[in-house]
Design the sequence.
C-alpha cells in the first residue's frame, strides 16, 4: 500500500522520467505521404553511395528536411517518419520500432 508520503515522490518520478514510446512506422507513413512524398519518389532512397548508412543519419536527414520545409515536427514525428523509411527502404539496425 502506498502511503500518502510516497505519492509526491511517485508523481515527481513520473514527471521527470516519462515513458519512451517506440517510433510508429504507420504514423510515419501518414506524415511522409502527406508532407514528403510529393517531392520524394522511391528512387531518392535508392541512390548509390547515399548519405544514409545508419539510424542516426536517417534521423538527422528527416529532421533536417522537415526543418527546411518548416513543418515544425516534434522529435516523435521525426522518429516516426524515419522508422517508416527504415522499414520500407533502408533496414538499418537501431530503429526504435
Sequence:
Amino acid at each position: 500500500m502506498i502511503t500518502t508520503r510516497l505519492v509526491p515522490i511517485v508523481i515527481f518520478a513520473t514527471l521527470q522520467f516519462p515513458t519512451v514510446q517506440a517510433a510508429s512506422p504507420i504514423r510515419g507513413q501518414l506524415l511522409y505521404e502527406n508532407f514528403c512524398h510529393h517531392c520524394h519518389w522511391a528512387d531518392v532512397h535508392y541512390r548509390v553511395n547515399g548519405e544514409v548508412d545508419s539510424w542516426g543519419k536517417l534521423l538527422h536527414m528527416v529532421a533536417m528536411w522537415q526543418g527546411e520545409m518548416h513543418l515544425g515536427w516534434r522529435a516523435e514525428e521525426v522518429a516516426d517518419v524515419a522508422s517508416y523509411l527504415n522499414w520500407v527502404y533502408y533496414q538499418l539496425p537501431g530503429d526504435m520500432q
About this structure: The two ends are 35 Å apart (CA to CA).
